[in-house]
Specification:
This protein is an alpha/beta fold and about 270 residues long. The chain has two domains: about 5-80 and about 190-265, HAD superfamily/HAD-like (Rossmann fold), CATH 3.40.50.1000; about 85-185, Hypothetical Protein, Haloacid Dehalogenase-like Hydrolase, Chain: A, domain 2 (2-Layer Sandwich). Helix content is about 35%, strand content about 20%. It has nine helices and 14 strands. The strands form three sheets. The protein has a six-stranded mixed sheet, covered by helices on one side. The chain has a five-stranded parallel sheet with strand order 2-1-12-13-14. The protein has a three-stranded antiparallel sheet with strand order 3-4-5, sandwiched between helices. Strand 6 and strand 7 (about 110-115) form a beta hairpin. Helix 1 packs parallel to helix 9 (about 255-265). The longest helix is centred in the middle third of the chain and has 14 residues, at about 85-100. The radius of gyration is 18 Å and the shape is globular.
Length: about 270
């Protein structure tokens, strides 16, 4: 079965360490689109923090954001929305407060947090988005929440935070690490894999006609479910084991390599 939908993660995959799409990756995606293959972004980022990269590709593509909780095109067409249940959101906030976790929440594609900290600063600078410090009012934001983000200080802490969270909220919500210090929390039926399923269905495609590429733990569900998947060379071994092939890292145009080798079947 030929590939008709190509889904790429952003951070650590399509974007280099400067947070940019390289000319080679951009050219490969444009060539792929000319062949009728639909490119999409599949990211844990907010829609607003992702849309500009789709715009740089000069394509009105549907993008999977919030780890599958919102699928929306550059021009604003909503393909899918999926939110955490309000009751569970409230319980998660209380749990984060009890555990003294720094967390951020998202509503209507806006970023909210209780107080501004160094963790806030690093996050906002990383995605070029400004949020709102609203104090205790953050605990009142329980409706239409696509994800909650816990920010830690290390890989080890993130692993432990995710483990404890998944034990406590099993069947109600789930946590996945997207970067060494980011633990993302979504509804139990929401992931990049569910995002691929929803989008493929909307486009009249089978999941076996989808290729995915990524580098992190939150990419694993889509790497496993896609008809064919590539993993970045910088990924950890347990993530690499979930893909069909391994390509170069984000500093060496791994996305372009995957497109030319496995989608367009061209020499590079």
């Amino acid at each position: 079965m030929s590939i008709k939908l190509f889904a790429t993660d952003l951070d650590g995959t399509l974007l280099n360490k400067n947070g940019e799409i390289s000319p080679a990756n951009k050219q490969a995606i444009k060539e792929m689109a000319k062949e009728g293959i639909i490119p999409t972004i599949a990211t844990g980022r907010m829609y607003e923090a992702s849309r500009r990269f789709a715009e740089q590709l000069e394509l009105d593509v549907p993008i999977i954001t919030y780890n599958g909780a919102l699928i929306k095109s550059v021009s604003g067409k909503v393909y899918f929305e999926g939110f955490l249940p309000p009751k569970i959101v409230s319980e998660i906030y209380d749990y984060c407060k009890e555990m003294k976790y720094y967390f951020q929440t998202y509503q209507d594609d806006k970023l909210y947090y209780e107080t501004y900290t160094d963790k806030t600063k690093g996050y906002e600078e990383g995605i070029n988005i400004k949020g709102y410090a609203i104090g205790e009012k953050v605990y009142e934001l329980v409706d239409r929440i696509p994800k909650i983000l816990i920010i830690t200080t290390s890989n080890e802490e993130s692993d432990e935070v995710a483990r404890l969270f998944n034990e406590k909220f099993s069947g109600q919500a789930h946590a996945a690490k997207s970067q060494f210090n980011y633990v993302e929390i979504m509804a139990p039926n929401i992931s990049k894999a569910s995002g691929l399923h929803h989008l493929a269905e909307k486009l009249g495609l089978g999941i076996d006609e989808v290729m995915a590429i990524g580098d992190a733990n939150n990419d694993v569900p889509m790497l496993k479910v896609a008809g064919f998947s590539a993993v970045m060379g910088s990924a950890k071994d347990d993530v690499k084991a979930c893909g069909d092939v391994v390509v170069g890292d984000c500093e060496h145009d791994g996305v372009a390599e995957a497109i030319y080798k496995y989608v367009l079947k061209k020499d590079i």
